[in-house]
Every structure is written in structure tokens, then in C-alpha cells.
Specification:
The structure holds 2 protein chains of 2 kinds. Chain A has one domain. Chain A contains 12 helices and 1 strand, in the order βαααααααααααα. In chain A, helix 6 packs antiparallel against helix 7. Chain A starts with 7 loop residues before the first strand and ends with a helix. The relative contact order of chain A is 0.13. Helices cover 38% and strands 25% of the residues of chain B. Chain B contains 10 helices and 9 strands. In chain B, helix 7 links the parallel strand 6 and strand 7. In chain B, helix 6 packs parallel to helix 7. The two termini of chain B are 31 Å apart. The chains are: A mainly alpha, B alpha/beta. The interface between A and B is large, with 45 and 52 residues. Strand 1 of chain A pairs antiparallel with strand 4 of chain B. Bound molecules: adenosine-5'-triphosphate and magnesium ion. Magnesium ion (MG) binds next to helix 2 of chain B.
Chain lengths: 280, 251
């Protein structure tokens, strides 16, 4: 037998708060395929992997955009209306749906993985991670649909669109941070996911989704800019509507929020994850 | 495998489902609702390579907790667990965790979570399905499985994933006679290959047949550790049930 070379594993009480980061991240990386596979399987279990399931995911924000367009673009119109406003709405609602999905799936990722958590030792961060991956998989077709409207609406097309992957990446990191926080929170407060829709609704109205960042009234702009989605959506609007590179201020601010949230959320999650098995 | 002075505590809230609402209500009443359950208190023992350790004890004695700690799922509160080799768990709940996915998909997911390669799992997939012998059910959602079918699949996966140390928690109790026979033969085979097995069971006859060593837990402490026959005799005398057929066999 190869027992002589088997490594000795030692489990001891943890004195430090955060588990040793090096081995933790190595284990996480070793199981990266699991996270992706789980993300796909979760979509499959919810039958979002079928053409109709995908369509439904895109249709929901699309219909919402239609309603807001009629309401704010045409009826209350003024100088709004036109393809610009539709682009603002669509880009914003799709991006917001990405965050909504990541939060919703992330919040339940730990409590719904009960059996796996009780019976297998693995870095728990894999579960919120794969929830965000699921949300990203749902976001990709939305970006495609947006692209069609972008072209039809005659929005600027050029090299500035190369910023899009970076914006999506920043958004994904941001969502991961949030998902980590809410995944851990739901273990302690199971009703978190029932508060979430209200929270998201308020957040939607406070975010530059129904209006463009450039149209923000100067008086309340500093107040609204506290919103972590504000700089990100601002950068989106600059790239998609103005056809220019995002201003470094907005981009930096957005990246700062994303990294900060990932570090904060990661710390919150990691310091608590060893408790999950006894609390589920 | 060595366990030294191991203690594990569960911290639970008083209510069944912890919610923010009830936390706020409690805050208003200035109550603290955390209850501490000491599941294991200073447990020490050693298991030599290749031994089959039967773990017996009353409900709530801490057997499942012990296995979870050895698997690295629960952190110890004090003490130390040293394990040499890859640990495969087969705890009472089995492999599957998403009832909407088929048995096959759950097997792959569970194996990947345990750190195996997808190709590795798929290479052994035929062996696993042959052993579990579930027929068409493998491609049906797992929520359609009976508890015995669950157990069969879980056992088949665990023993075929090349375990260094196998932890079995009452998994055989739901299998039918034919499957039990097959799994006992498989366990003997694994023991012969010098693998270490921890077997939690209320089926004392099973423990007596398979185990080379027996650990008796009572309310989180070790009451006896020794050869199966005498430990089981002490245990049955202690709980005063007598060694009749009902106590020996798992019903
Ligand atoms: N998730 C949990 N939260 C709080 N307490 C728990 C939890 N799981 C187990 N306990 C407590 O820990 C103690 C040991 O439980 P454990 O599951 O290890 O018992 P067991 O020996 O496996 O029992 P059984 O024979 O019924 O399976 C029990 O007193 C139980 O109430
Ligand atoms: Mg048990």
C-alpha cells in the first residue's frame, strides 16, 4: 500500500479567526471545476438550461424595460424617450438582474447545500462562488440581447466597447463580495431571503437604471453616488451611450467598491464558515 | 489515526429556524438564545492502520459528531485529530443533495466536491452503477428515490472512490438483505487491503461480525474500547436490553 506517502492531516481547534489563506485558496482552486459544474447543474435543476428557460430569464427584464420605457420615456416623457433612453434602461436592468440573481442564488447557496455541507469537507466559499457563476451564465445571453438593441438603436460602436469585459469583471467581483455576505447571513437569519426582494426594489430605484448618470440632479448627486452601483453604471453609460472610455474616477471608484466588498465579504464568510456545519 | 482529548460543542439557537425577526424580538426582551450542546467531551482513542472500528452507543451519544470531526467537517473545540490518508465519508445522509438532479449527476457533483477529477469519477462510474444496481433509477431525479436506494448509491460511491479511510454512519441499516450481504463482502475486501474503516451502527450483530475493535460512546465520553464481543456485552448489559435478536440486529 502507498500508506507511507499519505500526508498526515491534523485537525485542531482554530485559534486564528481566518483559516490559513494559502491552503484554503489552493483547495478552492483545486475544486474550481466543481464550482463551474455546480453552477451549470443548478441552472439545469431549475431548467434554465433549456431555450425556453433562457428566454424567460431574458424576457423578464426585457418586459420590465418596456414598462418603464412607456411610463417614463413616453407618458412622462419630456426630453427623454428615443433609443438612448431605451439603451439606458436595458443595460441597467440587465446588469441589475445580474446582481439580483447573484444575490438571490448566493443567499440560499449555503442553506440549500445542507447535505453536502454536513457530509463533505470542502471550502464553503465554493457554493456562493458557483451561485455567482450561475448568475453570470444567465447574464451572458442578456448581454447578447442588449447588443442587438444597441445596434438597432444606432448607439456608438467602436474600440471603446473593449471596456465591456472589464466592466463585467468588476461587476462579477462586486457580486461575489455581496453573495459571500448574504450566504453567511442567511445561515444565521433564515428570513434574509424574504427581505431581499424589498431591498433590491429600493436599490433599483436608487440606482442609475431608470435615469442616466449624466442626468443626475447636481444637488443630490453626492448622496446617490454613495450607492456602489452608481460608479459602475456610470462607467457603463459612458462606454455604451457616449462612446468613450470610462472616466478613471468612476472606474477606479467602482473597482474599489468591488475589491473592498470582496475582501470584506470574504473575511465575513471565512471567519464563519467553520460554524456552518453545526448551524445547519 | 489518532484522536486526542477531543471535545466538540454545538451552538444552537433555541428556535427551530433562526430568523432576523425572532432575533429582534429576543433583543427587545434582552434574552440570549444560544444553547451549547457538548456532543463530545475529552474523547481519546487510536485506530491502527487497517482496523475496522465499530462505534456503538445510544442515540445522541456523539457518534455522528465524532465521524464528522474526523472527516474535517466540524472543527474540534479542544484536542486534536490526526488522520493519515484520504478520508471518504459516508454519513447517514448520503451523497445526493439536489433532489432535482439525477443520481448520476449527484454522484459526479458529490465526487467533485470531495476533490476528485470529473474524469476519475466517470471512469469508475460503471463499477459504481453495477454495485448500486439501481437500474433506470440512476437517471431519474433523486427525489424519487427511497431511503434504501439513497443508501445504496451512497455506499457504492464511497467504496469505489478509493478511500484510505472510510467512515460509515448507519448506511447499511436501510439496505435490503441482498445489498447488505454484498456490502459486507465489499467491506471485508477493503479491510483486507489495509484500509481503515469506522463503522457506526445500531446493528450490533453487524458490528460484531465486521469490527476488529469497538468503541462505546455514552453522552460524549468513551465508556469502553476493546474487542467487539466484550464491549458489546458491556454495552448491552449497561443499557439493560439483553443480547436478544432485536437488540443485535438493526431493525
Ligand atoms: N446540528 C446540531 N446542532 C445542535 N446539536 C446537535 C447537532 N447535531 C447533533 N447535536 C447534538 O449532539 C449530540 C450528539 O449527536 P450525534 O448526532 O453525534 O449523536 P449520534 O450518536 O450520532 O446519535 P444517533 O445514534 O441517533 O445517530 C446530541 O446530543 C445532539 O443533540
Ligand atoms: Mg448519528
Amino acid at each position: 500500500m502507498s500508506t507511507a506517502v499519505e500526508p498526515l492531516q491534523v485537525f485542531e481547534p482554530h485559534t486564528r479567526q481566518v483559516p490559513p489563506l494559502g491552503p484554503y485558496l489552493r483547495e478552492l482552486w483545486r475544486r474550481r471545476r466543481f464550482a463551474v459544474h455546480l453552477a451549470r447543474m443548478n441552472l439545469k435543476a431549475a431548467s434554465y438550461d433549456t431555450a425556453f428557460g433562457q428566454l424567460w430569464q431574458v424576457l423578464n427584464p426585457l418586459l420590465l424595460a418596456g414598462v418603464y420605457y412607456v411610463l417614463f420615456g413616453i407618458i412622462l416623457g419630456g426630453d427623454r424617450g428615443g433609443p438612448d433612453y431605451l439603451s439606458v434602461l436595458l443595460a441597467g436592468l440587465f446588469a441589475f438582474t445580474f446582481t439580483r440573481n447573484a444575490l438571490g442564488l448566493g443567499a440560499t447557496s449555503i442553506v440549500s447545500g445542507g447535505r453536502l455541507i454536513l457530509n463533505t469537507a470542502f471550502p464553503r466559499a465554493l457554493l456562493p462562488l458557483s451561485a455567482v457563476a450561475s448568475a453570470l451564465l444567465l447574464y451572458v445571453p442578456m448581454l447578447g440581447v442588449y447588443g442587438v438593441f444597441h445596434l438597432i438603436g444606432g448607439q456608438p460602436v467602436g474600440w471603446q466597447l473593449l471596456w465591456v469585459p472589464l466592466l463585467v469583471a468588476i461587476h462579477t467581483v462586486f457580486n461575489l463580495g455581496l453573495a459571500l455576505v448574504f450566504a453567511a447571513l442567511t445561515v444565521y437569519f433564515r428570513d434574509t431571503s424574504s427581505f431581499l426582494p424589498y431591498l433590491l426594489r429600493i436599490w433599483l430605484y436608487l440606482s442609475p437604471v431608470l435615469w442616466a448618470v449624466d442626468d443626475t440632479p447636481e444637488r443630490i448627486r453626492p448622496l446617490l453616488a454613495i450607492n456602489p452601483l452608481f460608479p459602475l453604471f456610470g462607467a457603463w453609460h459612458e462606454v455604451l451611450l457616449d462612446g468613450r472610455s470610462p472616466s478613471p474616477g468612476l472606474l477606479g471608484y467602482a473597482a474599489l467598491w468591488a475589491v473592498g466588498l470582496l475582501l470584506g465579504g470574504g473575511w465575513f464568510f471565512l471567519t464563519r464558515e467553520r460554524e456552518f456545519a453545526v448551524r445547519i | 489515526m489518532r484522536v486526542t482529548d477531543l471535545s466538540v460543542r454545538y451552538r444552537t439557537t433555541a428556535e427551530k429556524v433562526p430568523t432576523l425577526k425572532s432575533a429582534l424580538v429576543r433583543l427587545g426582551r434582552r434574552e440570549r438564545a444560544v444553547r451549547v450542546v457538548e456532543a463530545l467531551k475529552g474523547v481519546s482513542f487510536e485506530v491502527p492502520q487497517g482496523a475496522v472500528l465499530g462505534v456503538i452507543g445510544a442515540n445522541g451519544a456523539g457518534k455522528s459528531t465524532l465521524l464528522r470531526t474526523i472527516a474535517g467537517i466540524l472543527p474540534p473545540d479542544t484536542g486534536r485529530v490526526e488522520v493519515r490518508g484520504k478520508v471518504t465519508t459516508l454519513l447517514a445522509l448520503g451523497v445526493g443533495f439536489n433532489g432535482n438532479l439525477s443520481g448520476r449527476e449527484n454522484v459526479v457533483l458529490g465526487g467533485m466536491a470531495a476533490g476528485l477529477d470529473r474524469a476519475d469519477i466517470e471512469a469508475r462510474y460503471d463499477e459504481i452503477t453495477a454495485f448500486a444496481d439501481l437500474g433506470d433509477f440512476l437517471d431519474l431525479p433523486m427525489k424519487t428515490y427511497s431511503s434504501g436506494m439513497y443508501g445504496r448509491l451512497a455506499f457504492a460511491v464511497a467504496v469505489h472512490l478509493d478511500p484510505g479511510i472510510l467512515l460509515i454512519d448507519e448506511a447499511l441499516s436501510t439496505g435490503d438483505a441482498a445489498f447488505r450481504k454484498k456490502s459486507e463482502a465489499k467491506m471485508r475486501e477493503l479491510c483486507a487491503e489495509a484500509r481503515t474503516i469506522l463503522l457506526v451502527s445500531h446493528g450490533l450483530a453487524t458490528v460484531r461480525q465486521l469490527a476488529t475493535d469497538c468503541l462505546w460512546l455514552h453522552r460524549g465520553t468513551v465508556m469502553g474500547h476493546g474487542d467487539p464481543t466484550s464491549t458489546i456485552r458491556d454495552y448491552t448489559r449497561f443499557v439493560d436490553v439483553g443480547e436478544d435478536a432485536v437488540a443485535l440486529d438493526s431493525v
